[in-house]
Structures are given as C-alpha cells and as structure tokens.
Amino acid sequence: MGKGDRKKAADVFRESNFVFSQKVSFEEAFPEIADIKVIVEESGHGVREWNRVRHYGKDIGEYIDCSNPLCYNGGFSLGSILREMVRKRETHREETAICQGYEGSPKGRRRYRDCMNFFRITVDIQYQPNEDYDEDA
C-alpha cells in the first residue's frame, strides 16, 4: 500500500488479532465444500469496466474489498454469507450488500460519509460427498 491508500476490509481483517479464534485457510474453514464459484458485481465510485465483475473460486478470503479509492475498511463479509449457506446446506444464493466502509482520511481518522458502493453476489457451492465429510468430526 502506498502513501495515502485507505485500508480495505481484507487489510483490516488481516491485521487484526482475535482473542478467541484464529484465521485459517479456506479449506480448513470449509472442509465440506468441494468447489465454489463466486461472482461479485460492484457498482459505485472507483468501479471501472475491468473491475466491475469479479470471479472467485477457493482463492477467496473472509472479505471482498470495495473499489472506492476514498473508502476505509470497505467491502463486505463473504465469510458470513458462506457460513450461513453451509449451515443451511444451500447450493445457490444471490444476495446484495452495501459497502461496510466509509469515505475518510487516508488513515481512517476522519469520517466524511458512508461509502455508497453496492454489491450483487452470486454463490454456487458443490459439497463433498457425505461419506467424505463427517459433520460430527
């Protein structure tokens, strides 16, 4: 990150230390998922044609970042969507989210206004066969 860059949600998450939990890889967090396809369509400030639609597989993290260059802690929690889908054993979901961040000074000390970027999320999950994954383990 260069001087003047605002930290996004994934940056803040990466730099945070948690008392009662630890960060793990996708495979460790979701062993029941065999394959996943996530499409995120973003609209708002800082979104250009080349980054308007993003595709992810198992290379995803807890957060998807906002493209607004003025936004601090911007993005949304994909992890919370995935945990709910896995709990309900859903294979497809379409959802919307508003950026959780705010436009502010480079270090986030001054808050100017909420970020208004908007996300459309599509998630498709294929689960491991039942014999390969024991939910009680």
Strand content: 25-35%
Q: Using DSSP, what is the number of strands? A: 9
Order of helices and strands: HHEEEEEHEEEE
| Poorly predicted regions | none
Mean pLDDT: 84
Largest sheet: 4 strands, antiparallel
Shape field:
globular
Number of domains: 1
Strand order of the largest sheet: 2-1-9-6
The helix content, as a percent range, equals: 10-25%
Note the main attributes of this structure:
alpha+beta, 3 helices, 34% strand, four-stranded antiparallel beta sheet, three-stranded antiparallel beta sheet, 137 residues
General description of the model:
The protein is α+β, with helices and mostly antiparallel strands and 137 residues long. The protein has one domain (9-17, 33-129). The chain has three helices and nine strands. It has helices spanning 9-15, 26-29, 78-88, and strands at 33-43, 53-56, 63-65, 71-72, 75-77, 92-98, 102-104, 111-114, 118-127. The protein has a four-stranded antiparallel β-sheet, with helices on one face. It has a three-stranded antiparallel β-sheet with strand order 4-7-8, with no helix packed on it. The chain has a two-stranded antiparallel sheet with strand order 3-5. Strand 7 (102-104) and strand 8 (111-114) form a beta hairpin. The longest helix has 11 residues, at 78-88. The protein is globular. The mean pLDDT is 84.
